[in-house]
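Hi D.,

Good news: the full-assembly prediction came through. Inputs first.
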Amino acid sequence: MTVVFKKTKGLTNKPLTYCPGCTHGIIHRLVAEVLEELNILDRSVLIASVGCSVMAYDFFNTDCIQAAHGRAPAVATGVKRVRPDSIVFTYQGDGDLASIGTGEIVQAAHRGENITVIFVNNAIYGMTGGQMAPTTLPGQITTTSPYGRDVKTQGEPIKMSELIATIPGTYYVERVMTADPVSVRKAKTAIKKAFQNQVDGKGFSMVEVLSSCNIGWGLSPVDSLKYIKESMAPYFPLGVYKDKGKAE
Amino acid sequence: MKGRVSFDNDTCKGCGLCVSACPMKILALDLSKVNKIGYNPAYCIDQEKCIACTNCALMCPDSVITVERLDI
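Then the structure:
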């Protein structure tokens, strides 16, 4: 018997604090596996955000800094400039990156910082109790939009990958999802590419991962994977939005 | 028998994502057991049918699954 799958060394033995079925766990594992495979675990620095993933510093077997809400790209900029040999990545949710931290992510992308950003989009504020986020889908019911998001008064959901891809300083932007084994494999490929870009000194890479929040959405874990595929993916189309490596 | 799948029962949160991902439909939640953290852990009904595809482990958010493949 050969072991073909076991828990990666990139994660600590601490049990994850996420709800049962939350795909944060899958994305944590993918990032940790990539760090292990690229052999950069010992020089990686995670910049944790605020949100459900606020405890990420307990789970990753890397050095970690907990940044103020939304400010992870700014802290990552500092770490990368002071220690250029380290591999610096931020792990941010949609409340962190697309709402309070929009300024930081846009400016870091404009400066073309050589960092990797993992953006977990679950269309809701999960940690605080399922309030409407900038990425909440039109008509989606949350605790602060009980009749569904009304785009006339609350606007359309913000599409961060498209926005970041228009910035000249960015190197690589892709959107993936974690709805089934196939898409999880694709997500890992994208995350690996984003880290490889940093190792090669290429520049700013961001991977947006469509994730679930079964508690906030009021669905079972299995139904929320269907929701990602059938409701989120049509609004947030998957794919590579920018890859300067391909264009060169 | 092509593979073997094993679970770390005490950290499984019983979300059922592995059950839905298994192409051979040989995984289930063990409703007769409650683990240390209060959930019904997943288990394999029929180890003989496992093809070691690793789909269950890929979808497990808590990394509780280990998959082994039989050497030929």
